[in-house]
């Protein structure tokens, strides 16, 4: 289908299909197969035919990521995006795709991801990543053992020094993520944990013990975005893309002006402004959580609490499914799934919650109604990039 000519009035854009592939422990398959499984399920969820898809966004697989994935899926897209900025990739791609659809350069774009990160390590096809290499600016850090987790750990320690944030407060993020995962059948870990258990775990990078860190899993997912005129033919209620923002901060730690401020401070502000809403309007938040500190500082930078108050904000059960700000309602990367660049999972969970399709893990507002507004905010690298998307129930 040929996209219409550029319009003077932007089209509204909705998420019309979302799905996970098989997740958790998935041996004996390939990342390409997980891409295809997730894409087929998202298309089936939408109720649309594959012929409507004229755009694809993909990253992290193959030499020419979107080209190889599109060929594997049997697609010949007129619009592609392979922007790769780590965990924030998918929120940034969603923003780009929504802009393209709104302007008439595409009709329906599928965002798709799949990874066998856990299975590959188990089968010794790869080893765990300690760094992203030592070329370019990284040559000034990697020789000194400054691994990815060390960078997050150093930022967390700075926040603790500046604002008195405690280990117990950081641990409470992991405890609440696990509690949210308990009702998610797709979560890899669902057994409850306590603050004491988080603190007593093996040290990975001070102050992070094992349960402060995301799990490693296999899995994939897909989100189909489409123009408003396709909504009437969809099988599910649309979830509208109301506003999005993106921001890149730094690569080298010496160029990061303040370790206690993430790029979500900019991407969030832009997303809220473009959506015409405020943080207090949001019913639930899906936030990238490779480490507990990521959740805490991102909540601050998105404006859900003041800078330095993240510790007090998270320790009172606010992140639980029935809390004041349900956050990472599927269990997040700390307990549900984390097969690599997890940002697309945030969008899938946000859409399911707004549709009322989260089963036993469904969030309700205080009056018992379904949530109206959700936010998905991804972080990439070591707080290098951020993408934030505000979604609204149709």
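^ Assign residues to that structure.
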């Amino acid at each position: 289908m040929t996209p219409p000519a550029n319009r003077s009035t932007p089209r509204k854009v909705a998420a019309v299909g979302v799905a996970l592939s098989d997740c958790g422990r998935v041996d004996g398959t390939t990342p390409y197969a997980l891409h295809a499984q997730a894409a087929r399920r998202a298309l089936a969820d939408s109720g649309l035919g594959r012929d409507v898809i004229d755009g694809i966004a993909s990253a992290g697989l193959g030499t020419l990521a979107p080209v190889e994935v599109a060929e594997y899926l049997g697609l010949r897209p007129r619009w592609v995006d392979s922007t790769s900025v780590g965990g924030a990739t998918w929120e940034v791609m969603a923003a780009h795709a929504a802009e393209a659809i709104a302007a008439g350069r595409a009709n329906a774009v599928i965002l798709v991801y799949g990874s066998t990160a856990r299975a590959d390590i188990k089968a010794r096809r790869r080893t765990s990543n300690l760094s992203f290499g030592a070329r370019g600016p990284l040559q000034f850090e990697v020789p000194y053992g400054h691994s990815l987790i060390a960078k997050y750990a150093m930022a967390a320690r700075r926040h603790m020094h500046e604002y008195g944030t405690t280990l117990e407060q950081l641990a409470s993020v992991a405890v609440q993520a696990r509690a949210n995962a308990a009702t998610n059948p797709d979560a890899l870990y669902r057994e409850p944990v306590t603050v004491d258990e988080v603190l007593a775990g093996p040290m990975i990078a001070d102050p992070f013990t094992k349960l402060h860190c995301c799990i490693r899993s296999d899995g994939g997912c897909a989100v189909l975005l489409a123009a408003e005129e396709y909504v009437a033919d969809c099988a599910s209620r649309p979830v509208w893309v109301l506003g999005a923002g993106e921001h890149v901060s730094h690569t080298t730690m010496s160029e990061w002006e303040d370790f206690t401020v993430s790029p979500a401070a900019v991407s969030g502000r832009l997303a809220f402004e473009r959506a015409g809403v405020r943080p207090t309007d949001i019913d639930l938040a899906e936030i990238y959580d490779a480490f507990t500190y990521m959740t805490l500082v991102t909540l601050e930078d998105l404006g859900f609490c003041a800078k330095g108050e993240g510790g007090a904000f998270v320790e009172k059960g606010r992140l639980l499914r029935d809390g004041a700000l349900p956050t990472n309602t599927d269990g997040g990367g700390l307990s549900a799934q984390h097969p690599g660049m997890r940002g697309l999972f945030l969008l899938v969970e946000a859409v399911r919650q707004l549709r009322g399709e989260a089963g036993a893990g469904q969030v309700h507002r205080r009056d018992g109604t379904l949530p109206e507004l959700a936010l998905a905010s991804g972080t990439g690298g070591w707080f290098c990039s951020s993408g934030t998307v505000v979604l609204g129930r149709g």
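The first strand starts at residue 13 and ends at 20.
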